[in-house]
Design a protein that fits this description.
The protein is α+β, with helices and mostly antiparallel strands and 639 residues long. Helices cover 27% and strands 20% of the residues. Helix 3 runs parallel beside helix 10. The two termini are 37 Å apart. Strands 1, 4, 5, 12, 13, 16, 18, 19, 21, 24 and 25 form an eleven-stranded mixed sheet that branches. Strands 15-14-17-20 form a four-stranded antiparallel sheet, with helices on one face. The chain has a three-stranded antiparallel sheet with strand order 6-7-8, with helices on one face.
Length: 639
Amino acid sequence: MRATVRRFVVSTMAGILGLAAAWAAVGEESYSPPVARDFPDNVYWGDTHLHTNMSVDANGMGNRQLSPDDAYRFAKGESVRAHNGQQVRLARPLDFLVVSDHAVNLGVMPRMQARDPILLATEVGQRWREIWDEADWSPGAALHADSREEWRTAMRRFGVGSGAQQAFFWRAWSTDYVADETFRRSVWDEVCANAERHYQPGTFTSFIGYEWTPATGDPKSPNFHRNVIFEGGPEAACQLLPFSIQDSNNVEDLWAHLERYERETGGKVLAIPHNGNLSNGRMFRPEDFDGNPIDADYARVRKRWEPIYEMTQIKGDGETHPVLSPNDEFADFETWPLHERPHRLPVDERPGDFADKKRHEYARSALMVGLDLKARLGVNPFKFGMIGATDAHTGLATADEDNWWGKHTMVEVNPYRAVVTWHYASGGYAAVWAHENTRAAIFAAMQRREVYATTGPRMGVRFFGGFDFAEADADRADLAARGYASGVPMGGDLTAAPAGRAPGFLIRAVKDPEGANLDRVQIIKGWRDADGDIHERVYDVALSDGRNADPQGKVAPVGNTVEGTSYDNSIGDPELVAVWYDPDFDHEALAFYYVRVLQIPTPRWTAYDAAFYGLDELPEHAPLAIQERAYTSPIWYTP
């Protein structure tokens, strides 16, 4: 608001002219405050990792009918029919979607089904046609089984068995590539056209993308999958064919391809690593493809192409592991794998390299490894923002516990999946702070890491760091304006703290409008001390229901109102805000800070399955309630 008011008396033409001149002198500033707002004030929700029937494994595990068109329509809020015959629809549409079908043998399965003459003219196509014609590719036997044993038999025969059918399916990842460029070009043109057809700037953003997928068991790049996302449309994205393990299983070659793409097309592209918790300790190991220690050039290249990381999805949560964070009471969340649970064994009974492998698989420990590399190399290759995604192979981008349709088609909604595949999480979503719902704006937000992850609920989270925040800023109606004016947002950098000053953080977390109240807001800090040792600590910075920590720093649980598939918001708070200054700040130490927001307990998807199908028993370890959460991208401090 202006501090002064100008008064004018108009009695003559000269006065009228003087009035006009006076208003001109006020300047060109608009009466409308949003005109001058140059920061992103919209949060957009999406999935950057979804597979359709064009992926070999999705199709091979039953997804015969849900195409990219179906995936986009579903994400926009339309109803589609699943393979079990039921209609399925999102309660709330998404704002953006990346259909990231696997680049290797992309489109082969539906083209085989359609008897594509180009495909059948290839040697691989001819060899596979006989197997295809003899195989039973319908998922109906599993989805409509009359008993658990019948379901298991159908699963073994169809999706996870052996023999000619499965040889056909798995060879698609290793040796039997369709190399015909005419065929590959026609498929890639179809992928680009699909995304372009559904792009509605301002309403829905469909990105062109694909997944580069080394084999899970590859000794040098196990589960090193990257989702490649293009900023622009077909005019740039379709100039070069997707880079797959058909070309190379070395991620450094993928980065070189991305550099070539930008150089030759003028377009923009990035890659998102995912699922590090199943990478056999290699996703964030500071070694190159050949096992050599990484150098500054490697660090710069990786940082350049991989600004964000998918750290929660259907195959488990990737924030941290209980072995790595034993003092974090919320660390053991949707932890994979669950079949052996070695972290629950006594230390002397675990595999000798267990903890070291986990250190190079999880996001929090990777951020700490990044601090050490920054100190030694001058560059941090693991300086990434954090998002969630589904990795669903059903074509259905849903992460809601009461509306979850499985990892792949064979475990779409049916009476048996909660008994056998209860360990799957429902996935996650990416939240992006952007100026508008367009490819350029959302892509730019990803590049600057102004993004956060949730395990599904659409919580609103703001997180700023600076040196001049006051306690009263938490109550400001224009909290975001204050955050941008006096600090940096999530994904940003703080440097050279003023003498005697610690960084402060301005935080606002708001419940999902259609979901559960919040339990607490925490800041997770990692830092490297003067001796080169790495540390982590979890701070409770905002607690619901008026709770406070006891003298030992422990906080009483928020409670649990879950009964079957119901809960209520009689506990927790709808909004938590805080200004928090680091009480343990070391002016000379490299550090990062990120926010974790926890909901109150709510029913898990297993509870909804049990209620819908009248299941009397679930496995002993199958949880029926969950504390969903959000994770912001970090803010880094550099002396």
